[in-house]
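Quick one:
INPUT:
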């Protein structure tokens, strides 16, 4: 299994493509397809040392998937435009988070890790985006290059208990690209 990145040198970002032509969001996705993505993650990353962030290029118009991946590799994050506000910005603002993601692991009742993420983007994305989203890019981060986001006052109206477990900041904000160790494209 690959070890931690060598400090002082930017590690090479490993990029993989997992075509899932059967993954559609016009109706409930075929969640069994998630195992194909899980296999690539298990085969190429130490699953105990990563945080995975899933995104949809639909949230990044007019960029193509390849253009978006290129920008993310250069910046280390999909927050490449300081003027652009993320989805649910007001809800996440008290946490001072750089990204939302989670460790590799299967949710209860999910057929695979990626199946659980697919479900969130299909069932939960309509709440804040008005429509389901198809995930087409996973950002794989070195867990040791991230720290938990701030835990704001629990009495704040924008705070949801437990949300902070999925919110992170870069340990060294000047070295974001070094935290990114992989990208998985899902065309």
């Amino acid at each position: 299994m690959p070890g931690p990145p060598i400090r002082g040198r930017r590690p090479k970002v490993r990029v993989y493509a997992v075509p899932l032509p059967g993954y559609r969001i016009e109706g409930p996705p075929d969640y069994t397809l998630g195992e194909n993505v899980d296999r690539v993650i298990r085969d190429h990353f130490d699953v105990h040392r990563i945080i995975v962030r899933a995104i949809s290029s639909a949230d990044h118009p007019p960029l193509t998937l390849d253009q978006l991946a290129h920008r993310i590799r250069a910046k280390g994050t999909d927050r490449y435009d300081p003027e652009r506000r993320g989805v649910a910005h007001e809800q996440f603002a008290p946490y001072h988070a750089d990204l939302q993601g989670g460790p590799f692991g299967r949710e209860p009742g999910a057929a695979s890790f990626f199946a659980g993420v697919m479900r969130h983007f299909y069932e939960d994305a309509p709440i804040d985006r008005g429509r389901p989203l198809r995930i087409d890019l996973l950002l794989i981060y070195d867990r040791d290059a991230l720290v938990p986001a701030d835990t704001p006052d629990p009495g704040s109206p924008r705070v949801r208990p437990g949300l902070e477990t999925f919110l992170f900041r870069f340990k060294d904000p000047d070295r974001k690209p070094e935290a990114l160790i992989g990208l998985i494209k899902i065309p």
